[in-house]
Amino acid sequence: MKQNFHDSTRVVLNAQAPSHTTLGADLRALRRARSITLADLAARMGRSVGWLSQVERDMSEPSISDLRLIAQCLEVPMSMLFAHASAPVAEQGYVVRAAARRPMGSGEEGLIEELLSPDLTDDFEMVHSTFAPHARMQAVAHRPTQEVGYVISGQLDLQIGERTYTIGPGDSFRIRNEPFQWSNPYDTPCVAVWVIAPPVY
């Protein structure tokens, strides 16, 4: 069933090009990372392509209901979209404070991820990852990316292709468009910084 939220959308008149990365730019990056067209996303939301284009160009401000639906369609937590404007204006696009990191992913497999990059519009994204004790990635991932990681604390078993490596504090790794899977069979969390190009969130 189509849902229409036209009455809850505010149009920003005489919009100027923002001096920092905006919610619209992040939404565009998330959509493109999933190879979803404007038309496809608009159809899923029951909205017009024109309206969605205005949101991505910051000419329309989506309502809370719109953001909830966008988050569902793009499979990201809604809090990630809400937290976009939490930084002081002078720091937006440059600095991410530890308390202002945006949560990413669902956390269902025991992996808690937070965005370290100021936004999603660069050629890469940097993520703070915490792997819970005895957590495991249920399915092998294989995505058209180049990824590098650095372990801060704990240990992680990382399968890349046919090989499995145990990595610990100070170790780093690289994945180049290869199938991979992780597990933490140990009794302590593993904390790592993960860099992915292009962004997948």
> What is the C-alpha radius of gyration, as a whole number of Å?
18 Å
Instruction: Name the poorly predicted regions.
Output: 1-20
Distance from N terminus to C terminus (CA atoms, Å) equals: 27 Å
Provide the β-strand percentage band: 25-35%
According to CATH, the fold-level topology of the largest domain is Jelly Rolls
The appropriate CATH architecture of the largest domain is Sandwich
Alpha-beta classification: alpha+beta
Helix share, percent: 10-25%
H and E string? EHHHEHHEEEEEEEEEE
Task: Give a verbal description of the structure.
By secondary structure, the protein is an alpha+beta fold. It has two domains: 6-85, lambda repressor-like DNA-binding domains (434 Repressor (Amino-terminal Domain)), CATH 1.10.260.40; 91-197, Jelly Rolls (Sandwich). The protein has five helices and twelve strands. It has helices at residues 23-33, 38-45, 49-56, 64-74, 78-82; strands at 10-11, 60-61, 102-104, 111-115, 125-131, 135-136, 146-153, 156-160, 163-167, 172-176, 180-184, 190-197. The strands form three sheets. A six-stranded antiparallel β-sheet has the order 3-4-5-12-7-10. Strands 6-11-8-9 form a four-stranded antiparallel β-sheet, with no helix packed on it. A two-stranded antiparallel ribbon has the order 1-2. Strand 8 (156-160) and strand 9 (163-167) form a beta hairpin. Helix 2 packs across helix 3. It is globular.
What are the key terms here?
201 residues; alpha+beta; 434 Repressor (Amino-terminal Domain); Jelly Rolls; 2 domains; 6-stranded antiparallel sheet; 4-stranded antiparallel sheet; 5 helices; globular; disordered N terminus
